[in-house]
């Protein structure tokens, strides 16, 4: 291995490493059929929960799936999937991703840092280097789908992913109200400027049905994501309702679609996964 340029995960977490002689990104991507980058122009829309459960839904449909968490400053994927406290190990050449009981392969900064509870104070070039390592220096093996969970906005992390993976497709997550769809419109412009194909839009938190009386309440309104998709001529991938079990399962580290497979919300996740499967 050649000398490191200082922009990798091992350097950030341990103070030094050995980097690869050749750029490993292209050989890795050659073994991955489809890459979906989950984006949102706004925080608080449940993007990480959507990423985790969508990746698992694809896995439950019999696909080989990896989930990459590039939300460097707030990596919540390991917690949602019950992997908190685990550490990614190496095999002498590459990092080995963590794996859920369902066979979903996962990588996140929370899995490599010695003290994952401490804040990460990294500038853009360092974050870009870590993302590059997570794509090229992790032993993903052959995958049908790699789902990448990005932080909100249009900053370093999504830009790095777009530049490293030109064939990646964006999945945009919004909540129904206009204050969210206006911000997601910025993500649409971001994708258009970079030439990134948009696979579609998901409307999350789309109403709540009371489990006791059956009354439907559009807490954050409903239909905003579908209207946004129509406005920009984009595919609408589906609505995901609010369910108390989603928050409870995430806190407990029990992935929702696996823990409550017969619930209406889990079936909605599976329907979105089926729509993505129809693309490829």
Overview of this protein structure:
The protein has 280 residues and is an alpha/beta fold. 38% of the residues lie in helices and 21% in strands. It is built from 11 helices and 11 strands. It has helices at residues 9-14, 25-29, 47-60, 77-80, 124-136, 156-164, 178-194, 224-232, 244-252, 256-259, 264-279; strands at residues 32-39, 65-69, 89-90, 95-96, 98-99, 105-108, 143-149, 169-174, 197-209, 216-217, 236-242. Strands 1, 2, 5, 6, 7, 8, 9, 10 and 11 form a 9-stranded mixed β-sheet that branches. The chain has a two-stranded antiparallel sheet with strand order 3-4. Helix 3 (47-60) packs across helix 11 (264-279). It is globular, with a radius of gyration of 18 Å. The two termini are 36 Å apart.
- Please state roughly what percent of the residues sit in beta strands, choosing from under 5%, 5-15%, 15-25%, 25-35%, 35-45% or over 45%: 15-25%
Largest sheet: 9 strands, mixed
Give the overall pLDDT as a whole number. 87
H/E series: HHEHEHEEEEHEHEHEEHEHHH
Give the helix level as a range of percent. Answer: 25-40%
* Envelope shape: globular
Distance between the termini: 36 Å
Compute the number of helices. Answer: 11
DSSP summary, beta strand count = 11
- From the alpha carbons, calculate the radius of gyration and give it in angstroms: 18 Å
Low-confidence stretches: none
SS class: alpha/beta
């Amino acid at each position: 291995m050649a000398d490191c340029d200082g922009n990798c995960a091992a350097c950030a977490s341990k103070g030094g490493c050995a980097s690869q002689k050749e750029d490993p990104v292209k050989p890795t991507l050659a073994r991955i059929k489809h890459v979906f980058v989950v984006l949102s122009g706004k925080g608080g829309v449940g993007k990480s929960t959507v990423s985790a459960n969508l990746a698992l839904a694809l896995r439950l449909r019999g696909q080989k799936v990896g989930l990459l968490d590039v939300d460097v400053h707030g990596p919540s994927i390991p917690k949602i999937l019950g992997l908190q406290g685990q550490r990614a190990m190496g095999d002498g050449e590459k990092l080995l991703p963590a794996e859920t009981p369902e066979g979903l392969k996962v990588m996140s900064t929370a899995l490599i840092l010695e003290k994952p509870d401490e804040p990460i104070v990294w500038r853009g070039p360092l974050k870009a280097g870590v993302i590059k390592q997570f794509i090229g220096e992790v032993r993903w093996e052959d995958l049908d789908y790699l789902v990448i969970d990005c932080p909100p906005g249009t900053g370093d992390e999504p830009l790095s992913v777009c530049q490293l993976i030109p064939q990646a497709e964006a999945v945009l997550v919004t909540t129904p109200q206009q204050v969210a769809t206006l911000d997601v419109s910025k993500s649409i412009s971001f994708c258009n400027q970079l030439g990134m194909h948009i696979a579609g839009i998901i409307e999350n938190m789309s109403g709540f049905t009371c489990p006791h009386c059956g009354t439907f309440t559009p807490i954050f309104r409903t239909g905003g994501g579908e209207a946004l998709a129509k406005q920009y001529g984009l595919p609408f991938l589906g609505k995901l309702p609010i369910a108390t079990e989603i928050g409870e399962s995430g806190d407990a580290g029990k992935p929702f679609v696996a823990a409550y497979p017969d619930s209406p919300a889990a079936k909605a996740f599976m329907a979105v996964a089926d729509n993505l499967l129809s693309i490829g």
